[in-house]
Amino acid sequence: MAATIITQEDLIQFREDLFEELKKYFSKKDESAANTKWLKSHQVQRLLSISPGTLQNLRANGTIPYTKIGGVIFYSQEEINAIMKFNKRNEKSFNGKLF
């Protein structure tokens, strides 16, 4: 069996390569975490000005997608925004009056 000699320069190069790989890994993870913000039920209720029952109905009929982990329900901020855009009406009215 042949012996491999590892020099101090080899270890320094290994350390630098390892740090570069770790930086790439964590920067990708940070970008994806920054792009997806998860909201809890009370935050969605406040955001949409709806009651807990209305939010439950929106979940039940599939209008708002959600993720349940343990007993906590999470909603994607991105998906909520997409739903709001999809359901946006072009008519600009306030109290029955058109602008």
Question: How are the elements arranged and paired?
Answer:
Elements (H helix, E strand, L loop, with lengths): L7 H28 L2 E3 H8 L3 H9 L6 E3 L2 E5 H10 L6 E2 L2 E2 L1
Antiparallel strand pairs: 1-3, 2-3, 4-5
Query: What CATH architecture of the domain at 35-87 do you see?
Result: Orthogonal Bundle
Secondary-structure element sequence? Answer: HEHHEEHEE
Count of helical regions: 4
The 3D shape can be described as elongated
- The average pLDDT is 85
Distance between the amino and carboxyl termini: 86 Å
Measured on Cα atoms, how large is the radius of gyration? Answer: 25 Å
Would you tell me which CATH topology of the domain at 35-87 applies? Arc Repressor Mutant, subunit A
Protein model, in words:
The chain is an alpha+beta fold and 99 residues long. It has a domain at 35-87: Arc Repressor Mutant, subunit A (Orthogonal Bundle). Helices cover 56% and strands 15% of the residues. It contains four helices and five strands. The protein has helices at 8-35, 41-48, 52-60, 77-86; strands spanning 38-40, 67-69, 72-76, 93-94, 97-98. The strands form two sheets. Strands 1-3-2 form a three-stranded antiparallel sheet. A two-stranded antiparallel sheet has the order 4-5. Strand 2 and strand 3 form a beta hairpin. The longest helix has 28 residues, at 8-35.
